[in-house]
Amino acid sequence: MVVLELHGSGGRIIADITDEQAKLSDLGVGKNFLAPVGKLEEQKMQKYFCKKCEAEFDGSPKIQIEESPNESVADGLILIERGQYTCHKCDSILGEYRVFQKKE
Ligand SMILES: [Zn+2]
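A: This is the predicted complex of the input protein with zinc ion.
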């Protein structure tokens, strides 16, 4: 496990993630991103920074499930959930997540 700062469009989340997730989050530009990691569990997120509030908060942001489409996005891959991490104070979106599942 590593503690990393993960960047989203509206803020950053500091979270405990696995080495595998860390690799996914590293797009090779010197910082780590939220979107490629998938959904983080609330207890793994230690704090977050909201760009709109310009402030850091302890604990995890809110997780808002936008939809659970169960749609095929590619051969052998299904999108099972899409959602956002949002700020407890101002409700702005810090970043998005997607959960995929491989078709049997
Ligand atoms: Zn905020």
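The chain has a mean pLDDT of 95. The chain has one domain: 2-102.
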